[in-house]
Amino acid sequence: MKIELRSDREFDVIAIGRACIDLNAVEYNRPMEQTHTFSKYVGGSPANIVIGGAKLGLRTGFIGKISDDQHGRFIEQYMRSVGVDTSNMVVDREGHKTGLAFTEIKSPTECSILMYRDNAADLFLHPSEVLEDYIRRSKILLVSGTALAQSPSREAVLKAIRLAKQGDVKVVFELDYRPYTWTSTDETSVYYSLVAEQSDIVIGTRDEFDVMENSFGGRNETTIETLFKHAPELVVIKHGLDGSYAYTRSGEVFRGEAYQAKVLKTFGAGDSYAAAFLYALIRNLDIATALKYASASAAIVVSRHSSSDAMPKIEEIERLLELHVSH
Amino acid sequence: MKIELRSDREFDVIAIGRACIDLNAVEYNRPMEQTHTFSKYVGGSPANIVIGGAKLGLRTGFIGKISDDQHGRFIEQYMRSVGVDTSNMVVDREGHKTGLAFTEIKSPTECSILMYRDNAADLFLHPSEVLEDYIRRSKILLVSGTALAQSPSREAVLKAIRLAKQGDVKVVFELDYRPYTWTSTDETSVYYSLVAEQSDIVIGTRDEFDVMENSFGGRNETTIETLFKHAPELVVIKHGLDGSYAYTRSGEVFRGEAYQAKVLKTFGAGDSYAAAFLYALIRNLDIATALKYASASAAIVVSRHSSSDAMPKIEEIERLLELHVSH
Amino acid sequence: MKIELRSDREFDVIAIGRACIDLNAVEYNRPMEQTHTFSKYVGGSPANIVIGGAKLGLRTGFIGKISDDQHGRFIEQYMRSVGVDTSNMVVDREGHKTGLAFTEIKSPTECSILMYRDNAADLFLHPSEVLEDYIRRSKILLVSGTALAQSPSREAVLKAIRLAKQGDVKVVFELDYRPYTWTSTDETSVYYSLVAEQSDIVIGTRDEFDVMENSFGGRNETTIETLFKHAPELVVIKHGLDGSYAYTRSGEVFRGEAYQAKVLKTFGAGDSYAAAFLYALIRNLDIATALKYASASAAIVVSRHSSSDAMPKIEEIERLLELHVSH
Amino acid sequence: MKIELRSDREFDVIAIGRACIDLNAVEYNRPMEQTHTFSKYVGGSPANIVIGGAKLGLRTGFIGKISDDQHGRFIEQYMRSVGVDTSNMVVDREGHKTGLAFTEIKSPTECSILMYRDNAADLFLHPSEVLEDYIRRSKILLVSGTALAQSPSREAVLKAIRLAKQGDVKVVFELDYRPYTWTSTDETSVYYSLVAEQSDIVIGTRDEFDVMENSFGGRNETTIETLFKHAPELVVIKHGLDGSYAYTRSGEVFRGEAYQAKVLKTFGAGDSYAAAFLYALIRNLDIATALKYASASAAIVVSRHSSSDAMPKIEEIERLLELHVSH
Question: Is position A36 within any domain?
């Protein structure tokens, strides 16, 4: 099965949701209390995905709200500098701040994030700021789950999905579940189900699909049985080091291997995975190949310091894949 | 066309949403400043509809949250006394108050409402308080638009709709648009569209459908063209004194006449309309007859002082219809 | 000891704080669930006091914020009609509603109130709406404790007290403690202490002074010892049916008897007490007499249906006192 | 005139208010958009003052609320490491975050701060968390104006002042006005006046005193005339490069010179000024000398990168003063 994308569109992917600031520990392998210096990067799952896509050569755009300050301007400037179209990024005029993520790297496997998300500007994107014409210029609308966590961003995203479906734009839903912005998993489950059932492609970890189903220890077969009764054509479920699975509505199942990497931290793995997976679909590669690109991209990013700036070029992905083939 | 309802269900209609207190001016035909006495009634669109249904002989139930005080207890006691099942009404434990509506009747055509809706208990119904088993015991789930205005009531309703669809329960959406509980018509439009497209029957005034479409002066033809691409089988659009129209997915159009009445006030017309319309559908009467019952019921309620207690019995509706036939 | 008041002022008393609506059970001696009709009156402690004062012949004014609706207009019209100067009552422009109090009279001794105080308009009085020139036109500024419960009303009152002290206006603090508008007794205690220590006269029940002291079972002697280290000259502590005590800075103690009355309900006793007490002080009567007037006024109001409209005329107070003398 | 301090107290100064994180631009003399690395320091005016005091050899303590995360723990550890008693710092259990200040240094004279103060943990200090016994162990209670900006921190500070006055602890009020945490200057003016009039020593810039007076271009003579009618014994008004003035209740006026410094940034000048000024008073030096120490301390801090870690030792202050004498 192949995902049919419109060929007459200017953009490959337009993402909607948050663009934030990551403050990454410069001195790491220690508790954050002992870190005295932080490096600033653009962060936030949908921003990282279009940045990653742009670095791979895709034509990408972004819909989101940024703060009216130095952090907001840095985000817009950085994204524009790597080739993301920022014409539909809106500057907040009500004093909301950019979301922050201080990353703590105690060891490659003990990473945590200290989030500043109270009244983050991205959550104030208003449905009136989502423009039909812009969405119709893209092959794909990428929706990030976190953007559903609060109003009015939630309604902005629901409107964007509606416009995408009316405009023959494929909707890709990256579950991107971040507990701190939701009031309950009941609430998350309501919106995740609603959006997943309207999307063409759904990507997430097994844990995230469990949140969508408001359950624990869910089985992939049950998940896809429910989703394939509705709009989805392709569902990708990630199982960490055990690899990932892509299921198609027509019944195919593909398994993607996780590649070994010298892990510096775990952040950014999902975003780089999604960027490379979409790249492959857009380049009309098959699903098995897309899974390989995705895993390779994730393996590269976890070995590096940031999540956005670290996004690989296509040559880097292909070089890593060649190494693995030659094994 | 007929709406196929499950015959194996204990309840005819279960409504979800608000149950409030109406405080109706005892001395009327004057500004409220000059009213010194108010009569207390149960109010709120979905509560009125199931009360009206119960008076007509339907088996009805209600899902909603009521305040932990004298007003909340009055609501539950009254609804139970007229035969509504209140087993799934939940008592709020966080100090929220019952919504109030003071009605002002300056003249039969100049009526207004002074609302107390800040933190009204009904808007705090939580998705975890909506039980799948209960919904599956009904033929119809009646959803009121106002219940979508705020979280967590919004999510409770979205969950109820999902459960209804999974459980082969018909979803009837009464738009019931009340501007004061919404932050913007953009927001209303997002949720009204989402819910209308998932419902089997949609009922509202032309103005309310305009809100759903986030436009002015919309045409019925456009409305039904959009809705019939999705779940709806039947759409009822009311045009006040010009009567109402019922459109079926199979292409039929029915026009219902508005009956003359000695109008005391305009409140409650829509709720009594919906109650009698659903009664007729459940009794397996045809759509043309359902429109007549609905209009007759509305004509009776506007001639009386309350919106809930004034709901007619079936004999009263039939008597009024006989008078009109004999003309 | 006598309280020295400026003789060159246009107003005897200007009160600051809330003016609300009481909805009193027409059918009483039963739970409110069984009451179907409510009578509307102006309510709220400081409003009642200046209404009571005006009925006794005092020249009174009011500083407060009222809703931009029928309830707000009713309040202003009623207060003006009984002679209260309403020129400094401000209409809220942000959609806040008038506070409501539904009264339940199960029996003369079992009375309770169902309050609607969420975002009540009176709590949104802003310091910029308190005018120095107006306060300086009065002999007395009457401050109600409830107005300290939330910002910005809290700051409006603190500013008014400051202006009063600068303008040689006596500050009378009526503790008027209503738990539902405060977040904690710690918070209440901070502001009650602050304001009491700056006031010239402090009036409250023993329980209210306990709240001020953030303690239980406090002794009057301790209370006055603390207060007389600061501004107060006169402290009145009410002990319900056991009567009330007035303490002066110069060491005098007066005991006022509570008069027997055919009690209909307990509401309004404190407000009518304060109105008549201030009347006596302003008419230059001695403190012992002021306590008698206060008790008589309270006895009259608890025998009647409302708290504001029921405020007695001076002849009624004097007639009741004559009856008691003749015993 | 000398300020009489209790000699029988364990602490010289206990401060109450905020302790935050400063994130200072590592690459400076450029807009923050072009800064990629930030150094982390403890910040917040009252925290800086007790840190500065501790470095000068004073025995200091701190009352404040810190976040339950890496930033909160860093603050407590750092303050403890320099000798501040942190036994009365309270850990927030409701998920509030540490306030942040990103500093931008475009040039030595163009400095600005990007603040994160929404729901900052320090503003949630509750009056019940302020302990009388602790305050009574100090000679001085230092109050920072920003702690008055929101409830419940506001009430915690008002309670602390009350306890200090009852316990013969001198109250020093550092105005520390930060507009972003206040809703209006009317509100600020109410609390600044209230607290200044209850304090023994008041320190601020001329602009800050204008905020207290809710006016522009105020004169020092008017300010002190008003304040000396109340509790203050000493008022220090800073005029930037034009130096500062200390006024005593007994009528003395002292002028302190501002010392030239190689300015890196302007942050931290006020805090280092206050720390050294209090040091001198506590060491029983005269007011003229205290002004010199204060100016010298400020001159040292503005030449360095941080506001807390940069606080000078007493030898550094004295060396700078010697240089100035020898000129």
Answer: no
